[in-house]
Automatic annotation (TrEMBL):
InterPro entries: HEPN_dom. It comes from marine sediment metagenome. This is HEPN domain-containing protein. Signal peptide: none annotated. Residues 15-111 form the HEPN domain.
Length: 111
């Protein structure tokens, strides 16, 4: 049973989802997707890739969207690429999307 507050799944599973989010971010660049949507998928790709690395290293990732928090959990022998370090600034896009989604559900009246 997974530890409460942590995700399960193999590193390969997490990377598959990370690549999917990265692909969605790339596809969105060529269309009329909102900038915030692109940033959300880029953030999700970085978050899921970091969680894959943590799981591979035996570190159970916490349930968080905060890329800086995940970076801080990396073993000292690992150095994250600069692109992942830079992706920490995208954390707000994940948090904003979750907050907006919850707000929309709260304000939606059911028949």
């Amino acid at each position: 049973m997974p530890h409460e507050g942590h995700f399960s799944g193999s590193p390969a599973d997490w990377l598959r989802y990370a690549y999917s989010d990265l692909e969605l971010a790339h596809i969105g660049r060529a269309s009329n997707v909102l900038f915030e949507g692109l940033c959300f998928h880029a953030q999700q790709a970085a978050e899921k890739a970091l969680k894959a690395v943590l799981i591979a290293k035996g570190v159970p990732p916490p349930k968080t969207h905060n890329i800086r928090t995940l970076l801080d959990l990396l073993p000292q022998e690992l150095v994250a690429p600069q692109e992942i370090e830079d992706a920490a600034s995208l954390t707000d896009y994940a948090v904003t999307r979750v907050t907006l989604s919850l707000s929309m559900k709260k304000n939606t009246k059911r028949p």
